[in-house]
Amino acid sequence: xxxSNRVNFPIDLVYLWVDDKDPVWREKRNKYLNSNIDxxxxxxxxxxxxDELKYxxxxxxxxxxxxxxxxxxxDNQCPQWLDVNHPKIDIVxxxxxxxxxxxxxxxxxxxxxxxxxxxxxxEHFIMGNDDTLFVKPxxxxxxxxxxxxxxxxxxxxxxxREKAKKSGNNYKQILVxxxxxxxxxxxxxxxxxxxxxxxxxxLSHFKESIDIxxxxxxxxxxxxxxxxxxxHRSFVSYYAIVTGKATLRKxxxxxxxxxxxxxxxxxxTNRFAADSRCIPLTTKDYQAEMRKYNPLMICMNDGEGxxxxxxxxMVAFLNNIFPDKSSFEK
Length: 330
Hints:
Layout: E1 12-16, H1 23-32, H2 52-63, E2 70-74, E3 89-93, H3 94-97, H4 108-112, E4 124-129, E5 132-134, E6 151-158, H5 161-167, H6 170-186, E7 192-194, E8 199-202, H7 203-212, H8 214-221, H9 234-242, E9 247-251, H10 260-269, E10 276-280, H11 286-293, E11 297-301, H12 308-321
Parallel strand pairs: 1-2, 1-4, 2-3, 6-9, 10-11
Antiparallel strand pairs: 4-8, 5-11, 6-7
Helix pairs in contact: 6-9, 7-9
């Protein structure tokens, strides 16, 4: 790749992280959990901590060493194994980005609504949860064009909006709402959901998105637990796409790395199954999923159906892929 086709600006990485086993944190959460909270939107799996962040950081060091700086956003917590003196690491407390009156907060959408307030966060960054990992070498050009345009990945299959509205699923209903808000403002229809993995953003796009619906973003930042009326960071991605400020890349079923036919189909359709794969913890054989899709990135997705045995299997699987400590660990 010629120098003119290379990214030459820094790219930061933002994680959201929580340790649900921390008794102080649990006491805070339980204080506010009550009969008025929709437990289907706020089930325990959303906060479950299985050391995924440790393995994700190992994946960064192994496959994305070009990452400029890493911000771990959390609630007065810190992983015991983390070397907080590492020059690439900053722990960002919720109090640094959210209004005092909004704390404590247990809603990832609320936290993400104020990501743009992270001190010293660069213009170009990628964001992931602690269960997202790189599993093959990735370059900055996987996330940004050389001119700074983010490459935004959405699922290839169209989102079933009517089913989502009737499902009662908080995440799906929020996506429908984000798509409706984009349509109302820009007259453009978005029919695809995010690919549920590392996503590329520009800080300026976050700020511009908030300026479009400031009251709704502000209300979200005060919603202690998930609400159907929350704003969501997918709005930022949709906004960048419909305004021509981002490049859309669809993640689908064709695999560019498995045979000539798959590669040709991926090229023609612009649908790349090998880019990322969301693997539910309930999946019986994680390795088989890896062999089938050979992805660049994975998300080990916890959920209501996952058991402690599934979580033990997941940890063993990740430890097998990333057995060596990273420089981010003590």
